[in-house]
């Protein structure tokens, strides 16, 4: 009879009979006190991470509040190998254990553990083959309802090395050129720069034939021998390394600090860029730092822009009008105001009546004779 009552009771509360009898034994032995939850922690934890290593984990996290288990582990191992810690690199726990330490000590927020969406990665074979450039979202200066900061970020595709991080007061062409000149003088010229279609490098729209509109900033880069390309529309992941850099900038700097002047942000950006390039492990680099894969470009920045010259035997050269049009074979074609006042080269293709238009080394559009201008 007692067995039948216990079975019915366990079914009612949706527990197993073994669990029901366990609680019955505890009640008979200890009374109501035996029904309280008991800790599942083992009496002994021989594999527990030593306190001094947990303190080392937390010290790195305190200095870099946005870093997770893998980055902290890589830094501790590097410091241990360099003799900067009292323990060897073999004593550094696994990344999952480091994450568990942070969670147990209340150092992790929910968003720190959320998985980022995966995407296919591509990478150029050498430094300076491609730089990715963008403005991170702007924001008001501390205590100011008018002045804003526009962080300009430029990242090398191969190494993830940050070649520029500038606290700009606007997004004007002159501002960007000044900051890029500083990067070019220090690191040399890249082969190509990729950006989105927004100002000041693009105009935010495509030509009717699907091509790109160029700006005076784009033309300036082309005169330096740098090719200009744009991300696929509605696909910011094309500029993924720069997007990821901007996310890290927000998570590791802008989330915690604000300043009333651009100079304050620039000083902080300079310090963080140094940490990012020289100290911060990068998962896509096998936990190496960007500086370990970056080299200065062999193409130095000229002090003056070189003249626009062409030399192929089958090309025809025309000067672009200030309106952006060029006259060719008794027809007018729109090339772009960015090239106004400069010569462009028209080169025939294998298709009859179709010509490619070049500014310096870059193909900027294709025209068709006896077709309505577009």
Core attributes:
single chain, about 375 residues, alpha+beta, Nucleotidyltransferase, domain 5, 4 domains, six-stranded mixed beta sheet, four-stranded antiparallel beta sheet, 10 helices, about 30% helix, elongated
Textual characterization of the structure:
α1 packs across α2. It is elongated, with a radius of gyration of 31 Å. Mean pLDDT is 85; it is low at 114-120. It starts with a helix and ends in a 6-residue tail after the last strand. The strands form 3 sheets. Strands 1, 2, 3, 4, 5 and 6 form a 6-stranded mixed β-sheet that branches. It folds into 4 domains: 2-35, no CATH class; 51-111, no CATH class; 131-292, Nucleotidyltransferase, domain 5 (2-Layer Sandwich), CATH 3.30.420.10; 316-368, no CATH class. It is built from 10 helices and 12 strands. It has 374 residues and is an alpha+beta fold.
Task: Provide a compact summary of the structure.
The protein is of the alpha+beta class and 374 residues long. It contains ten helices and twelve strands. Strand 2 (139-140) and strand 3 form a beta hairpin.
What characteristic shape results from the CA principal axes? Answer: elongated
Helix-strand topology string: HHHHHHEEEEHEHEHHEEEEEE
What's the CATH architecture of the largest domain?
2-Layer Sandwich
Any idea what the CATH superfamily of the largest domain is called?
A: Ribonuclease H-like superfamily/Ribonuclease H
How many domains, as an integer?
Answer: 4
Helix content: 25-40%
Q: Report low-confidence residues grouped into runs of 5 or more.
A: 114-120
The largest pleated sheet is described as: 6 strands, mixed
**Cα-atom Rg, whole angstroms?**
31 Å
End-to-end separation: 94 Å
CATH domain class of the largest domain:
Alpha Beta
The tally of helices reads: 10
Total strands: the figure is 12
Predict the CATH topology of the largest domain: Nucleotidyltransferase, domain 5
Beta-strand portion reads 15-25%
